[in-house]
Amino acid sequence: MPDSTLETGIRHDWTRPEIRALFDLPFGDLIFRAQVAHRRHFDPREVQLSTLLSIKTGGCAEDCAYCPQSALYEAGVDAEKLMDCSAVIEAARAAKEAGASRFCMGAAWREPKDRDIDAVSAMIAGVKALGLETCATLGMLRPDQAERLKQSGLDYYNHNLDTSPEYYGDIITTRCYQDRLDTLGHVRAAGIAVCCGGIVGMGETREDRVGMVEALATLPAHPESVPINLLVPVEGTPLHGAAALDPIEFVRTIAVARITMPASIVRLSAGRETMSDETQALCFLAGANSIFCGEKLLTTPNPERDRDRALMDRLGLVPMRG
Ligand code: SAM
Ligand code: DTB
Ligand code: SF4
What we know:
The chain contains twelve helices and ten strands. It has 322 residues and is an alpha/beta fold. 6-(5-methyl-2-OXO-imidazolidin-4-yl)-hexanoic acid binds at residues 52, 68, 106, 137, 158, 160, 197, 227, 229, 232, 269-270, 297-300.
């Protein structure tokens, strides 16, 4: 083991049998290990608050089976134009006033055109000027596009691996795993922090969840943020009607992400609207230390701010400063 690994506990050589063994631990042992990892790198009272805004909604050319924004499905989401820069900055100002430290702009694109990068760069500069961390999720990027986003002040880029390499083709056929890895490499090379995670509850097996964590934890550098989304089942999408995931298995996934990527922010991401306060509390115990706050994710509902404030108060959690 290299010295740096001994000091930090951060490893990039996680194997599937090791990750499988973590998932198989008695629940108490798993949570204990996640707590040890969490407390080694973070103040366990602190939760990072991000706010999402869909800057370009619907009409997407990709066929992601979970996504209401794909043009291929009738999920009740109309295609809209890219928002005006001033409206985006207003939304960011409101998010900051409500306590968010990071503002994430999402676009339903397979990949941005160069003129889209011009427009989004202006938004990033404006949001950054408010003193917020900036994040964008715009689909696949070329290296020069990643560079331009960096120059405009982009702190984080979200690009999820979503599931295991084996299950990926059952969920998306219009791009492949390597396309995702390539964009992640361009984002890293440009010096932008990486936000990369996945979705569970898509009918995948536990082995797929093991494979997803392996893919994330063996990246050359761990993503700084790891969003773990629970599928939001939207009528009209192919995954609507998928069997619901056992909440304890969701908590296990969070704990295994925390143990394998101990210095990363692990976000309890989509799916909180229908989750009990008790399940969310278990997720925080398992090492989740970030949420999306605000009434909407991109197109689907998220808990009201008052519910989140009350839950954080009951648990003694406080917002992490950016
Ligand atoms: N189009 C870009 C892309 O796919 O990278 C950016 C926006 S896309 C909506 C961002 C992420 O949202 C997806 O990678 C997926 O992980 C997540 N997502 C989309 N629909 C979801 C759903 N119904 N439930 C949970 N997560 C979802
Ligand atoms: C991520 O991992 N989850 C967010 C964000 N990154 C862009 C998106 C969740 C979307 C949930 C479905 C919707 O609201 O459309
Ligand atoms: Fe398009 Fe992103 Fe939705 Fe896939 S997840 S359909 S790429 S908006």
